[in-house]
Write a structure and sequence with these properties.
By secondary structure, the chain is α/β, with parallel strands linked by helices. The chain has a single domain, classed as Aldolase class I (TIM Barrel, Alpha-Beta Barrel). Helices cover 35% and strands 19% of the residues. The protein has helices at residues 30-39, 91-107, 123-135, 154-157, 172-179, 184-195, 214-227, 243-249, 263-275; strands at 42-52, 60-65, 87-90, 111-115, 139-144, 162-166, 199-206, 230-237. It has an 8-stranded mixed β-sheet. Strand 4 (111-115), helix 3 and strand 5 form a beta-alpha-beta unit. The structure holds iron/sulfur cluster. Iron/sulfur cluster binds at residues 68, 70-72, 75, 77, 80, 116-118, 145, 179.
Length: 281
């Protein structure tokens, strides 16, 4: 792996994940990619961002991984779909970077959040990075759609202090339409997290016309309540900040006319989660 040199042209730190990044792993030989995926010695990251106050408790460093099998119609970061758009980062380099933030994160009661893309596309790297964080006594959070949750053993899951679980919609057909993938594995992972008493923050992106069906939200809320370990639900209003990436990447975007949800709709959705005893913000 040592012969593989990460791109120096683009810094791993980014002001925000909304910065468009493509082709940064171009030139990495296929066998090196395969080895990276098998061992977790190298990961492909869109970027590191610092100072986040919304991706877990306290102030967070967020490592945004590249690679996602889903195709959510409202995805804000379609440049993270392709793993080869990410910057190759060795686990040693990631550890050095994380160590730089160790004391600051402690002082601000924060930690490391692994987001994406879908972090479990690079499950071996994710496990190694969480292990490194735990060695440094840093709080860990995994932001995931849950689809590949089976890739983590129960023991590996113990390295994750908090799961930010993205629940998109409940109805199987609607889910398939919205994401391109079936909902079953996500629900199975959610139930497993509940059984293992793993702390969860649910993330629910509210998109008018797509994820605002009252009955559907009721079912999602019911499921979340049944898990018994959901500490809070973040209702995230849809916005158009990622639209330019779809245009730049030449991917047809179907939500041009979709508006940000009204304050009333956000309030109604939060109220639905609160009605089953959950904290919703
Ligand atoms: S799961 Fe996340 S990264 Fe993947 S397509 Fe959906 S919104 Fe985008």
């Amino acid at each position: 792996m040592s012969q593989v040199k990460a791109s120096d042209a683009v810094p791993i730190e980014a002001p925000s994940p909304f910065e468009l990044r493509v082709n940064l792993a171009a030139g990495i030989p296929e066998n090196a990619v395969k080895e990276a995926l098998a061992t977790g010695n190298m990961g492909f990251l869109h970027s590191f961002t610092t100072g986040s106050a919304v991706d877990g408790p306290g102030v967070r460093v967020v490592a945004w991984t590249a690679g996602c099998q889903w195709r959510c119609l409202y995805c804000h970061n379609p440049d993270t779909w392709n793993m080869m758009n990410g910057i190759p980062v060795t686990i040693e380099h990631a550890k050095e970077r994380l160590a730089m933030y160790q004391h600051g994160l402690k002082a601000m009661s924060g930690g490391l959040t692994l987001s994406g893309g879908e972090p479990l596309m690079q499950d071996r790297f994710a496990v190694k990075l969480f292990s490194v964080a735990k060695e440094l006594d840093i709080h860990t959070a995994l932001d995931t759609n849950g689809y590949l949750g089976e890739r983590l053993t129960d023991e590996e899951l113990e390295k994750v202090d908090l799961v930010l679980l993205d629940l998109k919609t409940f109805d199987p057909e609607r889910h398939l339409h919205l994401t391109g993938k079936e909902v079953g594995p996500t629900h199975a992972f959610a139930r497993r997290l509940g059984q293992r008493k793993k702390k969860i923050w649910v993330r629910y992106v509210l998109v008018p016309g797509l994820t605002d069906d009252e009955k559907d939200i009721e079912k999602t809320a019911q499921l979340a309540a049944e898990l018994g370990t959901v500490e809070r639900v973040d209702v995230l209003p849809f916005h158009q900040m990622g639209r330019y990436k779809w245009e730049k990447l030449g991917i047809p975007y179907t939500l041009d006319n979709t508006q940000t949800p009204s304050a009333e709709l956000v309030e109604r959705t939060c109220a639905q989660f609160k009605a089953v005893g959950l904290k919703a913000v």
